[in-house]
Amino acid sequence: MKNLIVAADIDASLDDRARGDARFRVIRRPVRTEAELAEIVGDAHVLATRAYNRVTRRVLDAAQQLELIVQGTSGIDNVDLDAARERGIRVIHMPGVNANAVAELVIGFIISMTRTVPFYTRTMTRGEWIRDDCADRHELRQFRLGIIGLGNVGSLVAKYASVFGMIAQAYDPYVAEARVGSLEDLLAMSDILTMHVPLTHETRKMVGAAEIAKMRKGSYLINASRGEVLDQNAALAALASDHLSGVALDVFDPEPPAAGFPDDPRLILTPHIGGCSHEVKSTVGGKLFEKVVEFYNLSSRA
């Protein structure tokens, strides 16, 4: 029997599905830190994780029986893939499982920033009724949207933005449908820039002070991918200097953030909730277990 150690907050549909398969024993040991994870993986054949579980070489060295890592998120930058490959451990993730949730939040960010919803909320809580400038706010069809990364999330953002009449352009060197040939071109033409790339050596800090300086003055910047792909301090400095009119961040480097943020109504912050919804959480476990079954079914035929 294979021990399936669940080290993260993964819904009970995983357990429900596993009860019908005598090959697996589900053991729930939710942890947060690398040290805790290393302590609980000793008897694991399968390890179920989420993005906050740091599956390092230290963790893998402590899991001598481990055959498979299944992660209930799209990104796997928290896993030491080189160490897993050396051990012959397969790593399976779930690209697109939370794409709709992230895309919806991004559209919410866009509306909130362009219609200055946080500013109006702040004035209302002070008992003020300030609406003389509301006619200065533009509808979404007046904005050009730039999307970095045209994968599962980026393509949905483009689709949803088109419903509002937005002109969406994308830069992605790995997707033929991307219509902009360079990142520099996208920066120069976009009124709103949103980032949807995985964290790789290529994408780490791909947007920093130099790139932000190439964006239009008064434009907006959104990051709902990984905190490390954006120079967060450069984005905040551009907001403070009024080069950017708004910044929305759902991801940070590190997480949780080590320092405080300016009290600025043009800044929207959420604690990495983009891919978190009832619909996602209630189905991930079952889909994740399907990946486990598929892996062992194929292995038995090899």
- Largest sheet entry: 6 strands, parallel
User: Treating each run of at least 4 consecutive H or I residues as one helix, how many helices?
Assistant: 11
Between the first and last Cα atoms, what is the distance in angstroms?
A: 19 Å
Helix content: 25-40%
Overall pLDDT level: 95
Q: Could you tell me the number of beta strands?
A: 11
Dominant shape = elongated
Structural class: alpha/beta
Q: Rounded to an integer, what's the Rg over CA atoms? A: 21 Å
Order of helices and strands: EHEHEHEHEHHEHEHEHEHEEH
Q: Roughly what fraction of the amino acids lie in strands?
A: 15-25%
For the biggest β-sheet, the strand order reads: 7-6-8-9-10-11
- Spans where pLDDT lies below 50 across 5 or more residues: none
Describe the structure in your own words.
This protein is an alpha/beta fold. The protein is built from eleven helices and eleven strands. It has helices at residues 13-18, 34-40, 57-61, 81-87, 99-114, 117-125, 152-163, 183-189, 209-213, 232-240, 278-301, and strands at residues 2-6, 24-28, 46-49, 68-71, 90-92, 144-148, 167-171, 192-195, 219-223, 244-249, 267-269. Strands 7-6-8-9-10-11 form a six-stranded parallel β-sheet, sandwiched between helices. Helix 5 packs across helix 7. The mean pLDDT is 95.
What's the topology here?
Layout lengths: L1 E5 L6 H6 L5 E5 L5 H7 L5 E4 L7 H5 L6 E4 L9 H7 L2 E3 L6 H16 L2 H9 L18 E5 L3 H12 L3 E5 L11 H7 L2 E4 L13 H5 L5 E5 L8 H9 L3 E6 L17 E3 L8 H24 L1
Parallel strand pairs: 1-2, 1-3, 3-4, 4-5, 6-7, 6-8, 8-9, 9-10, 10-11
